[in-house]
């Protein structure tokens, strides 16, 4: 079952027409949520990121789009799909409705739709036996700026990069910005470990304002033995690192095992994911 503006339906294609601005122009935003046993992980962070993104996109936020309202709609969708007592991947999509060319019609109305599908793992785990291999994606680069950090429906680089990765037997690719700095993976933020130094690209470089990125930075910052740095990462630094890992809300932490001729360990990632699951259980 799909949720279109609060109404549950079997076929969202009957609700979204070819005039929908999200379809025509990518004039839409989305949040990917992990819901386990009726609880949305990090819901407050997702909600405030969505609201901030809607303001940047100059969308007229409906008065009823409160945190409580959208949470209830997400959980209603999860329940309608029989996933209340299971793990679910949920996409909450917000668009500017229909009408207009590049310039929206004055009466363009913000709408939402929600889909839910089952997930295998309720909590986060690392499969240390997986030989997760990445490469740089260099065909197209991200221009740094506020818009590049939004979870919008304009994801051409991620689509083309994913096709490139599949064609070349990679599990993922790392994205560059126009300054030739590594900013993220195709599906998450990037962290680099070198001794007691943990490094991740700054938001100003054009990476996603990731919800899981925020959680990981909060966990790491509590360890007085670690030095955390948000600064640009050059491609040359990747092969000098002890560990590389990717973060996103669905998988949690994904250790990179191979990049070109370098093989990386996973010990830091494994310890970190234990702390992440502890944080979820304690609700801190």
Shape summary: globular
Uncertain residue segments: none
State the helical fraction.
25-40%
The number of domains is 2
Nearest-integer average pLDDT: 93
Outline the biggest β-sheet: 10 strands, mixed
Radius of gyration: 19 Å
The helix/strand order is EEHEEHHEEEHEEEEHEHEEEEH
The quaternary state of the protein chains shown equals single chain
Number of helices: 7
Give the helix/strand class: alpha+beta
- Give the CA-CA distance, first to last residue: 32 Å
Per the CATH scheme, the topology name of the largest domain is D-amino Acid Aminotransferase, Chain A, domain 2
- Compute the number of strand runs: 16
CATH architecture of the largest domain: Alpha-Beta Barrel
| CATH-level-4 superfamily name of the largest domain | D-amino Acid Aminotransferase, subunit A, domain 2
CATH C-level label of the largest domain: Alpha Beta
Tell me the fraction of residues in β-strands, as a range: 25-35%
């Amino acid at each position: 079952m799909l949720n279109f503006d609060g109404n549950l339906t079997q076929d969202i294609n009957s609700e979204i027409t070819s005039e929908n601005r999200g379809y025509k122009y990518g004039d839409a935003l989305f949040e990917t949520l992990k819901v386990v046993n009726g609880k949305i992980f990090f819901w407050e962070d997702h909600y405030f990121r969505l609201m901030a993104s809607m303001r940047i996109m100059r969308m007229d936020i409906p008065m009823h789009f409160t945190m409580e309202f959208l949470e209830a709609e997400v959980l209603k969708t999860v329940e309608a799909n029989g996933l209340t007592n299971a793990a679910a991947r949920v996409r909450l999509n917000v668009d500017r409705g229909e009408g207009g060319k590049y310039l929206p019609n004055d009466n363009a109305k913000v709408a939402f739709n929600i889909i839910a599908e089952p997930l295998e793992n309720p909590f986060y785990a690392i499969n240390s036996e997986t030989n997760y291999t990445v490469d740089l994606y260099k065909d197209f680069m991200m221009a740094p700026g506020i818009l590049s950090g939004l979870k919008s429906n304009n994801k051409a680089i991620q689509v083309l990069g994913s096709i490139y990765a599949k064609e070349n037997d990679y599990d993922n690719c790392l994205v560059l910005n126009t300054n030739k700095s590594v900013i993220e993976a195709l599906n998450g933020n990037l962290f680099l470990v070198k001794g007691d130094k943990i490094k991740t690209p700054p938001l100003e470089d054009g990476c996603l304002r990731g919800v899981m990125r925020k959680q990981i930075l909060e966990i790491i910052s509590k360890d007085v033995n670690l030095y955390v740095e948000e600064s640009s990462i050059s491609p040359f630094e990747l092969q000098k690192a002890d560990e590389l890992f990717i973060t996103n809300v669905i998988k949690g932490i994904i250790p990179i095992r191979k990049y070109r001729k370098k093989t990386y360990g996973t010990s830091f990632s494994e310890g970190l994911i234990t702390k992440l699951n502890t944080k979820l259980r304690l609700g801190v």
